[in-house]
## 1
Amino acid sequence: MRTFLRLLLALTFTLAGVMHFRAASIYLKVMPPFLPFPLALVYLSGAAEIAGGLGILPSPTRKLAGIGLIALLIAVFPANIQMAVQGTGQLGIDVPRWIWWARLPFQAVFIAWVWFVTLQSPSIHKK
């Protein structure tokens, strides 16, 4: 199960990272205005998602990639808050604002998912 969840997480982060390059204009619109160099940050976060997604696959880089992904999830949280506060009407996405607010706690779920598949040691039960 852990391997499946790791593969799913790797795919999720890698695809999300690619989207930062393919649809940078959308990510720019939800970037908090107080952050400098928004386009560079969109590309940097996309590259970090790709590197982290691929990095959790081989065991020699798994732990470091997991730490990096957790740091990234914390770092992008202001953008998640920005989406909840401003909504996404300016993006042409007709999604009720409450959905973006409801999404915020799931950042902790994503962090736990990364931790489970990269940092938590598998339990060894001896009888």
## 2
Amino acid sequence: MNTPSTVMPEKQAWLAMFALSMGFFMALMDQTMVAVALPEIQRDLDASINELLWVSSGYLLAVVVPLIFTGRLGDMYGQKLLYRLGLGVMACGAVVSAMAPSIEALIAGRIIQGFGSAIQMPQTMSVINRIFARERRGRALGVWGIIGSVAALLGPIVGGFLTGTFGWHAVFWVPIPIVIVAIILATLWVPKMPAVHRKIDAASVLALFVGLGSIIFAIQQAPDSDWAWWVFALIAVGVVGLILFVRLQDSAAARGTDALVPLELFADRNYRVGTLSIISMGFMSVTLALPVNLWVQDVQGFSANQAGLVMAPMAATSVISSPFAGILVDKLHPRRLSQFGFGTLIVGMGIMWWIISSGLNPWWLCLPAMLLGFGQSFVWGTNSATSMRDIKGELMGVASGVYNTFRQVGSVVGVALVSAAIQLGSANSGLQTGAASALLLIMLALVGGFAAVCFFKDTLHTTTGNQRP
């Protein structure tokens, strides 16, 4: 919930939103932009396949594992400070990556970039939830969510252009001036948030890092290791670490310290529902391009630029429809909006599966891509606004960190499972079958998201004794 000191006038709030969105956009585009440059990086740096995979895996691992901790740091030391610090670390990592003389140096640079993203990403959502009034957050968070989706879609297109025109180093040089501008604008436009002084529970941080790190690393390496025994052993270690983490949060007060993640967050029904449903969106947003691009390019013979154009309507439709969807978030029941959004996504994914499994002309994919873009406009903003609407201001940072962690875990799990589905389907019946199987898996994840949002309740349009469940 906001306090009067943090809510800003409309114009100033949108200026701050713009400054925050620049860093958020670059962090998410960075996750998909580099993938296109990997073949050239491999040739230039004489990297093995495993080393090459760590260019992306190292970045993602460095993003996901610290998110909850860095969100809490934002509550303690101020989101504005942490946002600018994260951007600065991102820029340093980009310089190291751009100047890397070896694959090892490049991996190190990517890990630095990922850690910078982990520092700044939770702060964006936290500040947005505090500078916009409770009844105006839906539109802002709708724009915020679509910015993330469009960033993921534009990454391969921008990365392909930069790599093809200037070489792979440009993929790391170009974001630097954008990050510098974002730091300047954040200094000018983003307000200083009240800090909450708390103790850092070192045992909780260690348990969290071991738990999340073991699970994420195991899932990342599972497809390439053919799901070896040590993958399951690491997952078991991770589960034990997370169980210990939860117990430490529950006993924090008795131990005379502050919980890293106050369990009272999950007493909020909408927050519980939102963190579960966002897993499916993380699953879809990062993995969709993989089966589609493989089928369009390797089976149908399209160029990389043509493949980008096939999915471009998804981004265009999202940009056009998101303001309208954001307005509705603050006016209608969140359950109905989310169900409509997820339902549209499921229908669009079903049509896309039918086109690919039938071997039709790839240009027909533009139609379901438009449906996907339209549908996600009603999910991103609704989910984030409804999840965070009733969270206390002093918990916004850690709540944002947990929320983003669930989304990123969905992405990591999605990449592993979709890759496995493509490999299994391709081995049995060819790449077309593998791509179609992967789309069915994504559709199943969206069905899970639809089921979760059925439990959203309306807390915005309520009066005493007349709450809409």
